[in-house]
Amino acid sequence: MSILHVIKQCKSVKQLHQVHAYTITTGLLPIYPLPILTNILSTFITTLIPTSSANSSTLLSYAISVFCFIPNPSTFCYNNLIRIHTLLSFPFHALHLFASMRHLSIPPDFHTFPFILKACAQVRELSFSQSIHSQAFKYGFLSDLFVLNSLIHAYSFSGCVNDAYKVFDESSDKDVISYNSMIDGLVKSGEMTRARELFDLMPLRDEVSWGTMIAGYAQMNWCNESIELYNQMLALQLRPCNIVLVSALSSCARLGELEQGKTIHEYINRNRIPVDSFLSTGLVDLYAKCGCMETARNIFESSPDKNLITWNAMLVGLAMHGYGSLLLAYFCRMIAAGIKPDGVTFLGVLVGCSHAGLVNEAQKLFKDMESVYGVSRDLKHYGCMADMLGRAGLIGEAIEMIYGMPIEGDIFVWGALLGGCRIHGNVEIAKRAALQIMEIKPEDGGVYSVMANIYANTEQWEDVVKTRRSISSNKRVKKITGFSSIKLTG
C-alpha cells in the first residue's frame, strides 16, 4: 500500500494528522485499519525525538486515540504505546498499560522490557523494578543485552546501586553499554572508587565511558582525578566531547590550575571545536575564577548564545574580584537581554556589592528579588546581606533583618553578623550572635576565638580569660586549623 509509505515519510505530528485525515476522507481507513493505524502509531514515535511545540498531554491523547481504534492490538502496538508514554514522561500510565497487557494475556517480547524498565527508572520506585525484573526472568529475557542494560539503569535510578551491580556481575554477556550503565549508576551514587575500578576493568571504552568518569570526578570535586583522567584520554589520542572539556575546565577553575586550563582552551582552538554556550560558560568560569577578567570578558562578549549559566559565571567572576560597578552594569545588561535571573545570580551580585561597599544598591536588589524578579531568598542571600551590613557598621539593620527572616538563621548568617561585630567592636550584639552559633554548632571552636578577640580589642580581659578557659574545658569544641595552598611548580 502506497499510503503506508506516505505515513512512514511523515516528519511531524502535523503531517501525520493530515495523512490520518486523508485516510478517513478517502475511505481507506475503514478498509485497512490495522496496517494504517499501526504505522501511524510507530511513525508517531519518530516525531517525538525532535522537540515539539505541542504539549505532552495533547500528544499522548492523540496516540491513545489511535491505539484505541486498532483492532486486536498486538505486542508491537503495546510496545509502541508504552514507549510513547515514557518519551512523554508519563511513567505510571506506561506501567498501567503493561499491567493491562498482561491481564489480556498479550505476551511481552524483548522490546517490551527495555521500554517498561525505562518507565521504572523514571518512577524511581524499587518495587516496580523488582516486579519487572521477575517478569523478565519468567519470560527468559534476562540474557538479552538490551533488557540487562535497562535493568541496571532502572535499579541505579531507584537508588539501589548494589542490586544493579548484582545484575551486572551475574551476567556473562556484557557490552560497553552494560559497563557504562553500571559506571553511571555508581557515579550518581557517589561511589567514585568503585566506578573507577570498573572503568579500569573495561575491555573497551567509548566516549561515554570517559565522559561519565571525568564529569563524575568534577561533580564530586575530585578535581585532580578529573584532570588526570582527561590527560590520559588525550594521551591515547581520543577526542573528548564537550561534556569532558567542560568538566576538565571546571576542575581547573576550582583548583586555580590556569596553565592546565589554557592547554584545554588551546586544544579547543587547535581542533576548531565549535564553542557553544556550554563550552563558553566553562571558559568564562575558568578565566574569571583565576583572575583573568579581561580574557573572561572577551570570551563572554564573543559568545553568540549566552544563557543564564554563562551570565552567572561572568557575574560571579566580577563579584569575586571586586568589580562592583561593572558587575551591576552586566546585571542590567542581562535583564535587558531578557534573561531571567535566579538565586545564583543574586548571590553573585550581592557578594560583589558587599566587596565593593555598594550597600544601597545591594539593599534595593535584595528588596526587589521576590517582588520584581520572582526569585526566592534563601539563607545564603540573608547571610550575604548580614555580612555586608555588618562590614558597613549597620549592625542594628543586620540584627533587625535576621530577626525578621521567615526562616531560622544558620551558622553563616549569625557568623556574618559576628564578623561585623568584631570589626566594629559591638560586644553586646556579638554575644547574642555567638550564643546562636553555639546552639547551632556547639563544637565550633571558631566562635570562641572570635569572641576572645572582641573582648581583647575592647580590653575586657576577664572575659578573654573566661572564653579561653571555655575552649580548654569543653571537650566538644574543636579548634579549626587554618591552612593555605600554594603551587610550587608550573
UniProtKB/TrEMBL annotation:
Q: Which Pfam families match?
A: E_motif (PF20431), PPR (PF01535)
What InterPro entries does the record tag this protein with? E_motif (IPR046848), PPR_At4g14850-like_plant (IPR046960), PPR_rpt (IPR002885), TPR-like_helical_dom_sf (IPR011990)
Q: Which GO terms describe its biological process?
A: RNA modification
- PPR repeat ranges are 175-209, 307-341
Could you tell me the keywords of this UniProt record?
Membrane, Repeat, Transmembrane, Transmembrane helix
Q: Molecular function (GO) terms listed? A: RNA binding
Taxonomy, superkingdom: Eukaryota
Q: Where are the transmembrane segments?
A: 308-331
Q: What is this protein called?
A: Pentatricopeptide repeat-containing protein
From which lineage does this chain's organism come?
Answer: Eukaryota, Viridiplantae, Streptophyta, Embryophyta, Tracheophyta
